């Protein structure tokens, strides 16, 4: 029997709608207030739309909507109904906002400032929309589809696609503008990562030690973090080991290392970044 998807609550729906709307507006600001007036492009469908709008004189917002239509259907097939609806909403807001903002004067004519701040606004907008279940550019959806038929990763396909767009833009806008466009794209790419992963920068820690109980108790007492003991087995020795798992933030990493070293200098410790933490007992306890 197929399990039915649980319907999203009104509170969650409003929250998602608000962030999708905000993300699309931010992206429109980045494009129309910073990039387009200074002849700077983005990658993907947005980059193609900017070039075509410049060549034809047709409003950018119209190209943004029309060129993304095929990806609504691809997104529905590849990822699902909620993603497709979120994407339609985001692209519609982006297209309308882009049209309304087009007459507004650029915030700056300094090309470096335009590339950097345009990239930040665009990346923040895209990151918000992705984080809340949508997309503002069909390039990655197309890459997922092509990836099934060609021996290239999604990232490689997107990179090849964008190289072609920036080369095309170089012929249309000039090579200096194409290079500034690469700068804006890089800034946007990094901003997307920050927005999706969040600024909190939670980290997971895995510790293997014979003094696991003492280390676990010290983490609870001195860091105020909960720990979980997992059963492990050494593949080489066949010995049973207890593994400590806990989640900390970046400011607590040095203190965690100090606790482990104090208790057992030979302990195994691995720390990794986590994009998001939800549920459980992650909330920090008070330290007295």
Report on the structure:
By secondary structure, the chain is an alpha+beta fold. Helices cover 61% and strands 10% of the residues. It is built from ten helices and four strands, in the order ααααααααβαββαβ. A four-stranded antiparallel beta sheet has the order 2-3-1-4, covered by helices on one side. A hairpin with a 6-residue loop joins strand 2 and strand 3 (240-249). The N and C termini lie far apart (51 Å). The model has no long low-confidence stretch (mean pLDDT 84).
> Structural class, from secondary structure content?
alpha+beta
Give, in order, the helices and strands: HHHHHHHHEHEEHE
Q: Which overall shape is indicated by the principal axes computed on the Cα atoms? A: elongated
Strand order of the largest sheet: 2-3-1-4
| Beta-strand content bin | 5-15%
Helicity range: 55-70%
Q: Tell me about the biggest sheet?
A: 4 strands, antiparallel
Number of DSSP helical runs? 10
Number of strands: 4
Radius of gyration: 24 Å
The low-pLDDT segments are: none
Distance between the termini: 51 Å
* Average pLDDT taken over every residue: 84
């Amino acid at each position: 029997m197929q399990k039915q998807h649980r319907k999203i609550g009104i509170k969650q729906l409003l929250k998602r709608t608000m962030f999708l709307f905000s993300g699309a507006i931010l992206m429109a600001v980045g494009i129309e207030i910073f990039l387009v007036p200074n002849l700077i492009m983005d990658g993907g469908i947005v980059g193609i739309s900017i070039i075509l709008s410049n060549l034809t004189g047709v409003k950018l917002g119209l190209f943004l909507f029309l060129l993304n239509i095929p990806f609504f259907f691809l997104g529905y097939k590849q990822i699902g109904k909620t993603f497709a609806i979120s994407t339609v909403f985001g692209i519609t807001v982006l297209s309308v906002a882009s049209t309304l903002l087009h007459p507004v004067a650029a915030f700056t004519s300094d090309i470096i400032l335009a590339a950097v701040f345009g990239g930040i606004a665009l990346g923040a907008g895209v990151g918000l929309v992705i984080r809340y279940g949508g997309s503002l550019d069909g390039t990655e959806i197309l890459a997922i589809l092509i990836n099934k038929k060609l021996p290239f990763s999604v990232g490689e396909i997107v990179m090849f696609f964008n190289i072609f767009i920036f080369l095309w833009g170089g012929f249309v806008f000039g090579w200096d503008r194409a290079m500034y466009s690469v700068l804006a794209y890089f800034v946007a790419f990094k901003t997307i990562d920050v927005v999706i992963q969040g600024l909190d920068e939670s980290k997971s820690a895995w510790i293997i030690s014979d003094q696991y109980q003492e280390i676990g108790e010290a983490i609870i007492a001195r860091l105020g973090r909960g720990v979980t003991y997992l059963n492990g087995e050494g593949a080489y020795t066949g010995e049973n080991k207890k593994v400590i798992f806990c989640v900390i933030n970046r400011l607590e990493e040095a203190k965690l290392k100090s606790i482990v070293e104090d208790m057992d200098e030979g302990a195994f410790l691995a720390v990794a970044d986590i994009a998001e933490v939800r549920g459980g007992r992650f909330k920090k306890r008070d330290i007295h």
